[in-house]
Amino acid sequence: MNPNYRIYVAIFLLLTFVETILAQNKQLRAYTLEDGLPQPQVYDIIQDKIGYLWLGTEGGGLCRFNGDMFKIWNENDGLQSNYIHSLDFVNDSLFIGTKSGLSIKVKEKFTNLEGPRINKISLISNKIFLATNIGIYEYRKNKGLVKINLNTKINTSIINDIVFDGRLYWI
Fold first, then answer.
1. Under 8 Å between Cβ of 97 and 121
2. Which of 44, 48, 47, 70 is nearest to 58 (CA)?
3. Cα angle at 98 between 96 and 104, to 5 degrees?
4. Residue 8 class from Cβ within 10 Å (0-12 exposed, 13-18 middle, 19+ buried)?
5. 10 Å Cβ neighbour count for 76?
6. Cβ-Cβ contacts under 8 Å for 120 (sequence gap 6 or more)
7. In terms of pLDDT, which residue wins out, 14 or 136?
8. Rounded to whole angstroms, how far apart are CA atoms 121 and 166?
9. What are 23-41's pLDDT values in tens digits?
10. What are residue 11's phi and psi, to 5 degrees?
11. DSSP class of 133
12. Which of 25, 77, 117, 161 has the greatest count of CB atoms below 10 A from its CB?
């Protein structure tokens, strides 16, 4: 076998590998304050049915990104808090977990419910559970935030997530 053949194959494979790596990097784009992002720390991102990205920030409020520009809502617009830790869509409502409770955005209106810091919003079996810094809450349309009392240890613990596997709840 020709020794130059091995060198040509190695160079070809190297160039193919480098081109693949570079092509993947072109898909990434970092957005900054200069692009309109109100705060560089983003705690949660969710995409709606239309394709907009919704971002919850640390101190900058709620952002909607349409692929070109950001629209921002904050406490001045009726948001419960500018510190957002969790986002989830339930039907046509955006549930926003903040450091001081829950905001529910329907069209351009916010409904605010004061409560503990909400770390995660989980829709399980048509119920909205909230993982908080002091246990688990459930949102009920007619009653607001309702504390779920399980046991003393869980009721006072920081809960970061709730998952239901079809048989058990994992917290």
1. yes
2. 44
3. 30
4. exposed
5. 9
6. 85, 86, 97, 130, 131, 159, 160, 161, 162
7. 136
8. 18
9. 555 677 788 888 888 988 9
10. -65, -40
11. T
12. 117
